[in-house]
Amino acid sequence: MKRFVDLGGRLQRGKINVDANERPCIDGALLTADVIVMACGAWMKHLFRRTLFSLLETERQDVLLIAPPPGDVRYDDTHFPAWIDHGYPAYGIPASGGFGFKAVITWHHLPMDLDRDDRVVHETAIARTRRYLAHRFPGLVDQPIAGVAVGQISSSKDTHFIIDRHPDHADVVLVAADSGHLYKHGPVIGDHIASLAVGATPVERRFAYGPHDPIALVNRPQ
Ligand SMILES: Cc1cc2nc3c(=O)[nH]c(=O)nc-3n(C[C@H](O)[C@H](O)[C@H](O)COP(=O)(O)OP(=O)(O)OC[C@H]3O[C@@H](n4cnc5c(N)ncnc54)[C@H](O)[C@@H]3O)c2cc1C
Known about the structure:
This protein is α+β, with helices and mostly antiparallel strands. It has helices at 2-6, 44-47, 49-52, 123-136, 182-197; strands at 16-18, 24-26, 29-30, 36-38, 56-66, 83-85, 90-92, 101-105, 145-156, 162-166, 169-176.
């Protein structure tokens, strides 16, 4: 954001909503620009109800960071990759920079009220995560929890991002369905969105409004 302002961009903070035709407004006034990119994260489903509501699912994910045993480097980023266990499903990243080993269990699909729910990890999530650690990472099962966070995750049915022009407004680009993974894709996806917005790149087929074939999840233990 600082770089944007340093380069001459103007930063205006405000509440975004849309009019009856889903044209974006800020603090009640229509947004005007050559191109408008809307990227309000998990809130996009509710902002652009007509276009996005039926395409997106929003759920909460309780994120636990487990402290590896002292001196045990097996779970560090020097020895362990970022991982996804599609069969369970679960995912995480190795312990890095003093942060614990991240483990997120995602099969239970808990709904979330984006504006009202506290971001406090549930006791049931802690129990669920320990069961999973016993299944895949027994060396971590009795280790202390070093950190927690709660994520609001917005996914499309096939878990691909949605990056497409608004069906009724060619000058409005919608960015949604971060699927809990947009941070690490940020720089590349940012370039793609900028290029799409100025008409230098067409809409990527897999990021167009679906439906696409879902990614198969197999071998989920009951
Ligand atoms: C606990 C947690 C752990 C995560 N771990 C990872 C990870 O390890 N790797 C990874 O790649 N991703 C991870 N993610 C996901 C990643 O943070 C998201 O994919 C990414 O932030 C999405 O970026 P975004 O800009 O689309 O949305 P956001 O970062 O959610 O930004 C949307 C912004 O829009 C604002 N907004 C919404 N509605 C309105 C409105 N009506 N008016 C004005 N402003 C509005 C919100 O306040 C927010 O600032 C994690 C997320 C969480 C919460």
